[in-house]
Amino acid sequence: MQSTIQVIELKSLGREARERLMRRAEKDIRDLLPLAQEVIDRVRAEGDAALVEFARRFDAAAFEASMLKATPEDFERARAEVEPEVVAAIRAAHDNIRRFHEEQMPEPMWFAEVAPGVLAGEKVTPVASAGLYVPRGKGSFPSVMLMLTTPALVAGVPRVVVATPPAPDGRADAASLVAAEIAGVREVYVVGGIQAMAALAFGTETIPRVDKIIGPGSSYVSAAKRLLYGVVDVGLPAGPSESIILTDEHADPRLAALDLLVEAEHGPDSAALLVTHSRALANQVLDVLPGYIAELPELRRQFVETVLSNYGGVVLTDSLEESIAFVNDYAPEHLEVLTADPFVTLQKLRNAGEILLGPLTPIPTANYCLGVNAILPTGGFARSFSSVSVHDFIKRSGVAYLSREGYGSLQGVAATLADYEGFPAHAMALRKRNEIIGL
Q1: How are the residues of the chain apportioned to helix, strand and coil, as percentages rounded to the nearest 5?
Q2: Of the residues 121, 189, 240, 267, which has the fewest C-beta atoms closer than 10 A?
Q3: Where in the chain are the domains?
């Protein structure tokens, strides 16, 4: 088993191999664009009829138009199906996620006097509507439902709707419906993939058009988002799961090995790397990994074995500084820091969707219930994108007021710049105003 785990000496990595490592499993979606365009065009032209046809083709053979929207009976069935301990866990997770996002909320309005008589500030308002996409390709994800619905509701979005793919029986996932209800959302549409993106972007007879779409998805969803960019705000890039476990020689190899498996079990296109300068620790991790992997169910074991021999494994560097430089270049979705003083290491870290410090803050706590949002940028986009937050659901309008004194101090400056840039109406609006108001 140990021989199947990829071990990479960073200093000996060639350019092509390094580029592949940095790209991880971010698939080239160009081949999917023709199909995505066809589905989008059909949904835009045919509405619900196209959604039903594509649901039958891709998801549930017996799907009917009446199943496009989750009904009160569906929510009631979901509450009966989900075990009480799972419901309790969803409630506990929601409490922490809500409290965290409440702390993110900015002041609804602020002003500063930037010069005498010159007031400038911002007014914060939520977007009018948001469509949240909760996938279910490899399982049931009530945690994703919480991570999307909670910040949208905390931000005060007036209309929050959810799209989630149907199971083979044509129904929405029960635990996801329970999570939606606990969060406070009952408008859930049972539609997935490209057709869900198109329905939220253009609207159908049943599904409303929204101003923004947020949520992770498959390569098909990513292809649809690319084509719909400019039609609707499609949010941050969120593709296959990825993680880096950053360690020095002081880390416990058993904990490092356990946490390396977390994102690797999501699927064969995930990426999971242990990055360390300690050869001794790396060898200890490689020694204990096979035993942990053997304890996993067959499907997840296959995922892990594929990932650790493909887009994952162990990256060996010559120093902690080189490890940190690699992390900043890679810009992982999840970053776990298992160093002697993680708060010191934190000061040198710049690019990561989330940074989890110390051996008692493993990725699963953040994925489910710690409070920070687990919908994170992937594929290196953590260099410029942030995790989902209330800021994804609000917008800021600049607000200003000039007193007579303030206007008098600025009109000459503005008129001069208007003349220089060749905008005579701008300058005229200022100079004739002086005559009108008697300045």
Answers
A1: 50, 15, 35
A2: 121
A3: 2-26+239-371, 29-108+127-228, 403-437
Q: Which residues are catalytic?
A: 333-334
Q: What is the mean pLDDT of residues 304-327?
A: 96
pLDDT by residue (tens digit) across 91-143?
999 999 999 999 999 999 999 999 999 999 999 999 999 999 999 876 789 99
**Residue with token string 């493909």:** 310
Q: Is 409 helix (H, G, I), strand (E, B) or coil?
A: helix
The DSSP 8-state label assigned to residue 425 in this structure reads: H
- Number of H-type helices and E-type strands within the chain: 17, 13
CA 1 and chain centroid, separation:
33
Burial of 229 (0-12, 13-18, 19+ CB in 10 A): exposed
**CATH homologous superfamily for the domain 2-26+239-371:** Nitrogenase molybdenum iron protein domain (3.40.50.1980)
The one-letter amino acid code at 215 reads: G
**Joined tokens for residue 427:** 């300058």
383-412 pLDDT, tens digit per residue, is 999 999 999 999 999 999 999 999 999 999
